[in-house]
Please model this.
Amino acid sequence: MPEKNHYYYNADQCEFVPVLYDTKKKLVHSLSFWLINGIVLGCIAFSLLTKSVGTPAEIALKDENRALIEQLRNAEVSITDIETKLDEISELDNEMYRSILGLDHVSDDLRRVGVGGADIYSEFDHHSREVSEILRNTASKLDRLERKINIQKTSFNEIKSHYNTNKERLRNVPAIKPVNGIILSGYGMRQHPVLGYRRMHEGVDFRAEINTEVFSTGDGIVKFAGRRGTYGNLLEIDHGFGIVTRYAHLSRFEDGIRPGKKVSRGDIVAYTGNSGLTQGPHLHYEVMVDGKHSNPINYLIADITPEEYLMFKEFEQVDNRFNLSLSE
Model:
């Protein structure tokens, strides 16, 4: 194809003459043309990209927001775990500490006290739905946790005050394990291992070889020491304040142990055996309050940790469910 020429009008010559370019000028002109077009196209592409993806600063901000949201979720889970542990402490407070001291339980309604009125978390609504929901849940749980802690703190202060004014009574409370052994069977309905039918197990059974030392679990006076029916050799200690403990299936009593004998918490009072109606040597231990049986686990406050207490309670529930399934 013949090369196209450009012309301009030369007034001196009164004619159109062709425009002449040297090679260097042509190269500069071509490069300038493509450079300008490239810059324009690049700007257009960058503008479209930032609209769909975002600027580097916006991308970094989005990553930061994702990390913060993840941290908020983790904090929400942690708060839930703390609240669960506090609920366990509240259960111990009612069933263990307050029961031992004869204090009224703190009601569940009071422990679950909430905040009424206007929506106090509306300030979070200007955030995205996901962030707003996390912030609302976290703030709500923190407020609830703070109220529960304050209630528990008040309860512990009441327990401390009651203890300081009832130290004599607390010396008599059966607060330790009667024998160094694990619990074999808990308190409640169960399948009797010898008789073969379901009946109330009014105490707890501790594993113990014959002639293992048995300790008085609180200060008191020996009420009975002798043989009684299916209990075999039985020891009863009256701790006053309506509390009596029983130690059954004994092999023998400690020297000097007879009705009227004063004993202190931790004194050796007898030795385990296999007397009475049993399948093997162990210690059967009961706690009676005002003539009614009570779960001895609730009285072992000086000898087990809160974690062990919850473990024993779970063991009792599993044991009772297992025995129930056997009877069905």
